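Q: Please design a sequence for this.
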């Protein structure tokens, strides 16, 4: 299992446009081997004392935070899918994102423990 995580500032009035954009993107990622995608719209995102989700993406007034993750079989599957998606040009036809893509945060992670699902990998274990 390999996780790609994103934090994205999206204008509140573009929530429906974002949902449609995300659904279209999920169909593409699924075709290229992504196992699961979760897109989450802000419900409770408190201001931190030193940093927080809003400051991390330089969120502006009226923007909401989207927290999303993709689950891939492994790092190689994601790397291969990204290469194939670029070669095939499918990301070019996904449409303009309804947010400022320069301010999103992307990170990829190898799980070290998980509760509620089996995971595979050297570092992986069940969280108790």
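A: Design:
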């Amino acid at each position: 299992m390999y996780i790609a995580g994103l934090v994205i500032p999206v204008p509140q009035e573009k929530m429906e446009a974002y949902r449609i954009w995300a659904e279209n993107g999920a169909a593409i990622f699924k075709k290229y081997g992504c196992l699961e995608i979760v897109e989450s719209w802000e419900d409770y995102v408190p201001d931190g004392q030193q940093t927080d989700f809003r400051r991390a993406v330089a969120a502006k007034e009226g923007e909401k935070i989207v927290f999303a993750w993709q689950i891939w079989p492994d790092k190689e599957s994601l790397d291969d899918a990204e290469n194939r998606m670029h070669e095939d040009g499918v990301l070019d036809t996904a449409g303009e994102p309804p947010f400022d893509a320069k301010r999103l945060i992307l990170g990829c992670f190898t799980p070290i423990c998980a509760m509620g699902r089996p995971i595979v990998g050297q570092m992986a274990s069940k969280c108790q």
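Q: Thanks. Anything notable?
A: The mean pLDDT is 91. Residues 15-31 form the longest helix (17 residues).
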